[in-house]
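Handout, page 2. Input:
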Amino acid sequence: MNNNYILEVKKKRALFIEEFEKNNENIYEQLIKAKNDNQLSSIRVHKYLTTGRTLGKVKTARYLDEIGLDEKTKFKNLKEDDIKKLVKYVSEQ
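Output:
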């Protein structure tokens, strides 16, 4: 892997995280996209949801714990049911 590739992946990941909005109608599609994209699937769900203070870190961590996930859970580890629960959580905040 060359440096340009690594920089492009970092840029893509940073942009994906920065673009998170809790009022996004397409949150389900965004979560599926992250799960299925090799360059995004290793992003931690907690980081994605809380960067930029869109959602509170402690409240989000507690919710993840409630549904059997944790702060280290990555998109690639999510199941369909987890994604549905996360969409519901985000839409209610």
